Structure prediction request, 91 residues.
Amino acid sequence: MTRMKIADLTSGVGALVLGVGLGSLFPRSFGSSAGLITIAGLCMHALGMWDKHRLEQLGQRENPRWVVVLYWMCWLLLAAVLMMLLLIWRG
Prediction:
């Protein structure tokens, strides 16, 4: 159960850092570090989500359908954020 809590915490902290990174994309004063903050949060959140999902599968824990839908929606949104960052850095 401790590993599950660590995975939850990693995912939550990653989401927080991702949010801070996205928020800092707007003010000019944080512009130079915004991309790195966002990428760090995206990676931490993705790692935590993946680890939790993997641990749930190892424990044969059945998730409700809505949890699975939210899990994959989150991955799609993370991919969209990554594409947005790539477009911003290219432009």
Remarks:
- The two ends are 45 Å apart (CA to CA).
- The mean pLDDT is 81.
- The first helix runs from residue 2 to 23.
- The CA atoms of residues 28 and 38 lie 15 Å apart.
